[in-house]
Design goal:
Layout: H1 2-7, H2 14-24, E1 63-72, E2 78-86, E3 91-98, H3 103-116, E4 125-128, H4 132-135, H5 137-145, E5 149-152, H6 162-174, H7 184-202, H8 213-228
Length: 229
């Protein structure tokens, strides 16, 4: 804030700025809660990184990324969100929040995405980290049954799944950290509204030349149909 004010020609000490922000205006910094510890289960099967940080796709539902993140209620209780993002336009195609971070949550989220989208069998790649939820027997077998190609980040390489990291940061900074959620129903609703309404239909995205994900999705589809006819 001191630097921002200096750019406008105002010179104040850190103490003065702190006084007016905290005492006079009641403004406080957002402090991120500490990430909860999670025990890693034994991997049933680990897949190579087929995505290779190529975060683009030629058409919808060709490359999806998925991951989990933690969310806190006002009481301090933890909830977990699993989301799936389409690299074609950065739209969120599925999002579910629940009380436990399990392979079942990962499967239900994937089922939700498959139900809502038109998929070409054998052409969909799903990229994730090497978390036990994605390497479990139940999840890998579900992907096989749906003809989904699994790809995984290298252990300890979060940038291999950068689009998901960015989405979760946006979700928390522009929604979760701005409010206190006393009831889990309110938290769940806020996450879904942000994903399916704000993020997909309202918020511009830099990788889409500052168009919304869905505007980009339909604009591309419309232009391709026009060129064909």
């Amino acid at each position: 804030m001191k630097i921002y004010l200096a750019r406008k020609g105002y010179s104040y000490s850190f103490t003065t700025i702190h006084k007016y922000m905290n005492v006079e205006l009641g403004l406080h910094s957002i402090v991120r809660p500490k990430k909860p510890r999670q025990e890693q289960g034994k991997a049933h099967k680990v897949f190579e990184n087929k995505l290779g940080q190529v975060f683009t796709a030629e058409k919808p539902n060709q490359k999806w990324c998925t991951d989990f993140t933690y969310l806190f209620l006002k009481s301090g209780e933890v909830r977990y969100n699993c989301s799936i993002l389409d690299l074609y336009d950065r739209s969120i195609v599925a999002s579910i929040t629940d009380r436990a971070i399990t392979s079942d949550l990962a499967i239900r989220t994937l089922q939700k995405a498959l139900t809502s989208q038109k998929i070409t069998k054998g052409e969909l790649m799903l990229h994730s980290d090497q978390g036990s939820q994605y390497t479990s027997k139940a999840f890998t077998e579900f992907c096989t049954s749906a003809s989904i190609i699994q790809s995984m980040s290298k252990a300890g390489h979060p940038y291999d799944n950068a689009p998901m990291e960015r989405y979760f940061n946006t979700l928390k900074n522009e929604c979760i950290y701005l409010y206190e959620f006393s009831k889990e129903e309110s938290l769940y609703q806020a996450v879904e509204e942000f994903a399916y309404v704000t993020y997909n239909h309202v918020r511009p995205h830099s990788s889409n030349e500052y168009q919304t994900p869905w505007a980009t999705r339909y604009a591309k589809n419309i232009s391709s149909k026009i060129s064909i006819t």
